[in-house]
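Handoff note, outgoing to incoming analyst
You'll be picking up this chain. Sequence as last confirmed:
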Amino acid sequence: MNSENTVTISKIAEVTLVFWIIKIIATTLGETTGDFIAQTLNLGYIFGIVFTGILLVVLLFLQIRATKYNPALFWAAIVGTTTAGTEISDFLDRTLNIGYLGGSILLGLGLFATLFIWYRREGHLKVENITRKNVEIMFWTAVLFSNSLGTAFGDWLVDGLGLSFFGGALVCIAVIVAVLVAHYTKAMNAVALFWIAFVFTRPFGATFGDLLTKPVAHGGFNLGTYNASLVCFVMIATLVMFNMRQRRKAEAR
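Most recent structure output, in case you need it:
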């Protein structure tokens, strides 16, 4: 095996209940932060893509270059993909006028192509024990497409289908519950369930972010993008610090 593509242990977070809780909050933070940059600060989607894209490249460079799993770095990279994904989706949907459905289809095809190439090269789509950098690159590419797709799909649920933010979140919750049922009844392959859940937790986070930030007249809680982002950041930081402390205790045994 090529040593340049090898690390000693997996650098991907263990998929547990805490993983999914942080993932959902991270998607909400990405949605509110992306909207804060492009809309609240009125810097536009092009600036948002450039700024968040540069930040994401730096985070992914550090993550892929690392030789072991670092919870803070891993989840910072996840937040980076959700924030950049928000800007990418909004740029496609609104600036290029592709529309929410068109953007969802385009990004969905990108995600499918990434997973297809990954599967053809590796013979699986497992995310545990990723030990080669080229596989990790495919993982993060899939994550970026997934999080961009989630924003477009979440917006389509609300604006395209005319659902409220709460209604859009309920649709995503229904899919997630179905995934949980399939998981515990072993009705579907675990890897397929992971990627379905990973995709649909993103639009849930996106619609939940809109629920937090949008005006009451539009069905939201009117917290604003800054306050909602701050709340989500504190929640993620608390959970990641807890995760890091648990890891240190396990390693000290």
